[in-house]
Automatic annotation (TrEMBL), chain A:
CDD domains: TM_PBP2. Keywords: Membrane, Sulfate transport, Transmembrane, Transmembrane helix, Transport. The complex is composed of two ATP-binding proteins (CysA), two transmembrane proteins (CysT and CysW) and a solute-binding protein (CysP). Residues 69-272 form the ABC transmembrane type-1 domain. The chain crosses the membrane at residues 21-46, 73-95, 107-130, 150-173, 194-215, 221-244, 256-278. It comes from the Bacteria. It is a multi-pass membrane protein. This is Sulfate transport system permease protein CysT. The keyword Membrane applies. It comes from Phreatobacter aquaticus. GO terms for molecular function: ABC-type sulfate transporter activity. SUPFAM superfamilies: MetI-like. The keyword Signal does not apply. The gene is cysT.
UniProtKB/TrEMBL annotation, chain B:
GO terms for cellular component: periplasmic space. Belongs to the prokaryotic sulfate-binding protein family. Keywords: Periplasm, Signal, Transport. One of its GO terms (molecular function) is molecular carrier activity. Pfam families: SBP_bac_11 (PF13531). This is Sulfate ABC transporter substrate-binding protein. It is found in: Periplasm. It comes from Phreatobacter aquaticus. The keyword Repeat does not apply.
Length: 286, 353
């Protein structure tokens, strides 16, 4: 068995595993991922490549596209950041305390996953419109929520919440209480325990949740267009510009914007993954 | 097979039974010979929901009476441009009934499923009904909006969908343009400034006509909604005449929503005859009456109920062909990438494309 001799650094394909069927499952995985993810994405890039790199660059640097990309990515980032904080608190409450209605609350978190996004958009627009339940209170303070970038922010926060909660929850549940108790017996204050013992262990999970929420928000269309106002250079998101290009039967232009978004998303997720890997090495757990 | 004058024997009885059986068999066979039920797919745009529900029912009844064949028409609704794209991408539509000729032109150009001359195959530019753009204002017209020039006053908030994504919004935009050009005796630059000022008063650009109606009617945003005439009447019927008034501007645009067969599909599915009959049915007196009832302007108003016709005010209407040189040119001048609509929203100082 020379494969074993190669040691843990080898790919280990030849190494017999306790579980059978690597060949067939690996083949299935590759075929499945290709059909569902790789081939559609390569068609996207291939269609955009009709424009050439300079063509794509030209589309990307159009002021209107730039403005829309900024709107999409900045607001998605802000929404994911807010979700990271409040998702963490929600996960904390759901795992650490027992109270009546906890299961119902727990189920509620998943609602933004299941709800058709257009329904979410219409509901949010109705609530935050100047004559809506919440919007009318903001209107008293002369703050417009619906039909402004603030509206986009609320929609993106709404659809991103479950990602952070659901990635942090299991890690929190697994976290050893004894470590906290040890920290307390060694004389740490509650704040010190929280900041130096608990939170570092949660950082990788929070980062994952943040990345998922961010990725989802960048591509979100349905819930946003109802509440965004869609004004060019102000509250226009990049996915809407893709739709606009499609309305003009400009498939190349649409796929060019899509490819740019894909590239930026990929780079952001890659960065987040690198930070995550680093924090996992640094703090362990995850 | 004579059942005769002779006394009835067993043999005769059996002959009778045989005859009866034969007749029964022929009847059953004959019924099987009536054509099998057929389904048509009509790909239409958003505000025609109620109209085609009524039209389809009437057509099915007539076709059953004249051809002894059951026909079911399924209608798909959505933004006109999006619907055109679905057909280009392979949605099997027997007929398309869209908001503007430009969208059917696009299907002809991009998919080659119908000939370029489709618009000359049916009367009246292939439009069995027309419509126009009017204003919907809040009850009592508190802001005193009478005509297009009131829309550019400071402090007036105008609701219209985005011309880039909505067929109806393109009519809105062109109607405003035609008004100012007419008022200034043909000054294109003035018309552009006018439309620019108008869009400065637009706080939200929804992606479709129904979305804008919702924004105006349910969210309470804006002082005036630029709407299809039928959509405006529908809003009155739906939400009550105590909430809104319709204001008819002095000049508007003649919107001609056209219809066409999709030749490639009807030939492949063998539905050409019934699809053709369906489109021709739209021009019949029965259909014209239904059309007027649903707030579209019939091309043969003599067939509609006089009360329905009386609801349509006389507005001076310009046509897309005369005022803008047809859809292809209007699109290139106003709605294409970097054309006049995009220029309206260029930030000051930013370089043009």
């Amino acid at each position: 068995m020379s494969a074993i001799a190669l040691g843990s650094r080898s790919f280990g394909i030849a190494r017999p595993s306790a579980l059978p069927g690597f060949g067939i499952t690996f083949g299935f995985t590759i075929a499945y991922l290709s059909l569902i993810v790789l081939i559609p994405l390569s068609v996207l890039v291939w269609r955009a490549s009709g424009l050439g790199l300079s063509g794509i660059w030209h589309v990307a640097t159009t002021p209107r596209v730039l403005a829309a990309l900024k709107t999409s990515f900045y607001i998605s980032f802000a929404a994911a950041a807010v979700n990271a904080v409040f998702g963490l608190i929600t996960a904390w409450v759901l795992t650490r305390y027992r109270f009546p209605g906890r299961t119902a609350l727990d189920a509620l978190v998943d609602l933004p996953f299941a709800l058709p996004t257009a329904v979410a958009g219409i509901a949010l627009a109705a609530l935050y419109a100047p004559n809506g339940w919440i919007g009318s209170w903001f209107a008293l303070a002369d703050i417009k929520v619906a039909y402004t970038p603030l509206g986009i922010f609320i929609a993106l926060t709404f659809i991103g919440l479950p990602f952070v909660v659901r990635t942090v929850q299991p890690v929190l549940a697994d976290l050893d209480r004894e470590i906290e108790e040890a920290s307390a017996t060694l004389g740490a204050s509650r704040m010190q325990t929280l900041l130096r013992v608990v939170l570092p262990a949660l950082v990788p999970a929070v980062m994952t949740g943040f990345a998922l929420a961010f990725g989802r928000a960048v591509g979100e269309y349905g819930s946003v267009i109802f509440i965004a106002g869609n004004m060019p250079f102000l509250s226009e998101i990049a996915p809407l510009l893709i739709i606009v290009q499609l309305e003009e039967f400009n498939y190349a232009g649409a796929t060019a914007i899509a490819t740019i978004m894909l590239a930026i998303s990929f780079l952001s997720l890659l960065t987040i993954n690198l930070i995550q890997a680093w924090s996992r090495r640094r703090f362990g757990h995850g | 097979m004579r059942i005769g004058s002779r006394s009835v024997h067993l043999r005769d009885l059996s002959a009778l039974a045989l005859a009866f059986g034969l007749v029964l068999a022929t009847t059953v066979y004959g019924r099987a010979q009536t054509p099998p039920p057929v389904t048509l797919v009509n790909v239409s745009y958003d505000p025609t929901r109620e109209l085609y529900r009524a039209i389809n029912e009437a057509f099915a009844r007539e076709w059953l009476a004249t051809h002894r064949q059951r026909v079911t028409v399924r209608v798909s609704h959505g933004g006109s441009g999006r619907q055109a794209r679905s057909v280009i991408d392979g949605l099997e539509a027997d007929v398309v009934t869209l908001a503007l000729a430009g969208d059917i032109d696009a299907i002809a150009r991009e998919s080659k499923r119908l000939p370029d001359n489709w618009q000359s195959r049916l009367p009246n530019n292939a439009s069995p009904y027309t419509s126009t753009i009017v204003f919907l204002v809040r009850k009592g017209n508190p802001k005193g909006i009478r005509d297009w020039n009131d829309l550019i006053r400071p402090g007036i908030s105008v609701i219209t969908p985005n011309p880039k994504t909505s067929g109806g919004a393109r009519w809105n935009y062109l109607a405003a343009w035609a008004y100012e050009r007419d008022r200034t005796g043909g000054d294109e630059a003035a018309a552009r400034r006018f439309v620019e000022a108008l869009f400065k008063n637009v706080p939200v650009l929804d992606t479709g006509a129904r979305g804008s109606t919702t924004t105006f009617v349910q969210r309470g945003l804006g002082d005036v909604l630029l709407a299809w005439e039928n959509e405006a009447y529908l809003a009155l019927a739906e939400f009550g005449t105590d909430k809104f008034d319709i204001v008819n501007p002095s000049l508007s645009i003649l919107a001609e929503p056209p219809v066409s067969l999709v030749d490639h599909v009807v030939d492949r599915r063998g539905t050409r005859a019934v699809a053709q009959a369906y489109l021709e049915f739209l021009y019949t007196p029965a259909a014209q009456a239904i059309i007027a009832k649903h707030f579209y302007r019939p091309v043969a108003p003599q067939h509609a109920a006089p009360a329905d016709i009386a609801r349509f005010p006389q507005i001076r209407l310009v046509t897309i062909d005369n005022a803008f040189g047809g859809w292809a040119k209007a699109h290139a001048d106003h709605f294409a990438d970097g054309a006049s609509f995009d220029q309206i929203y260029r930030p000051s100082g930013a370089p043009s494309r």
